[in-house]
Amino acid sequence: MNTLRQSVDEYLNMRRSLGFKMHGPGNVLPDFVTFMEQHDAPYITQALALCWAQQPANVQPATWAKRLSYVRVYARYRVSSDPRTQIQPPGLLPFKPKRARPYPYTDKEINSLLCAALNIPLYYKSCALLPWVYYCAIGLLSVTGLRLGEVTHLQLQDVDLAWVCS
Q: Are 81 and 2 in contact (CB under 8 A)?
């Protein structure tokens, strides 16, 4: 039977070969194995997984839930080679994220932002369009309902120039 460290490496390699990026699990699962080795635990237990997931104490509960979910998915893989492995139940660290409240800007605030965008100080001639870029982005955000990421990823082919110029 292979060790936890070997098993984590095999698991991460297998998932990556299937096309998963594994950025989060790839960073934290080796730390989990180190934690297990420090506690001389040859297999995953619910208590140790929960103890590890709740570290560090100064982070949001969402981080704890995410860490435990990485271990849960890995434990499902590990149980096939080590039946002593305990798989953590899904509701062990329940977390409901608090969504940010949307703030609707008033017309006066939008006009102030637009004026401020046009008055951005320019230190280089090569940045002469920068105020207009911000002006247009703020305008698009305020009238279309687009999100910031959607506005920043707009490309020229997304604009119907025939309609704009008519």
A: yes
| Cα gap 64→66, rounded to integer Å | 5
Unique residue bearing structure tokens 């506005």: 151
25-72 pLDDT tens trace: 999 999 999 999 999 999 999 999 999 999 888 888 888 999 999 999
| Residue 101 to residues 20, 75, 108, Cα–Cα distance (Å) | 33, 36, 20
Domain boundaries, the chain: 4-78, 107-165
Distances (CA, A) of 82 to 27, 32, 42, 154, 161: 23, 17, 10, 50, 62
pTM of the model: 0.60
The DSSP element (H or E) to which 45 belongs, if any, is none
